Amino acid sequence: MGIAVRLQRESGEVLAEVGDPNMVLSRATQHAFSSTRLLKYIVPWGAAMFNQAQAGDLESDIAAVKRANPNPQLFDILSEIEPLVARLASETQAYLWFVGD
Asked: pTM for the complete prediction?
């Protein structure tokens, strides 16, 4: 199944979602995310939630991983997640969830 990425309001309303059917994010948690500030806390078997105050660090983490990894599938899924992070930065009472199996 992979790790689903959801931008949600505090009420539970899903504002946007990116799926990971090929388990690209799950594989990235093993190596590609290990030296990042926040992405390193994502695990394939659990959930991680980030808030508006963390959006800048998430943006930096994503940019660093995209620069450091030649994997086009990882680049593409991170590019799909970037607009969710940008929206997180401007939304109040919203959270970005990375939900594993």
From this structure: 0.95
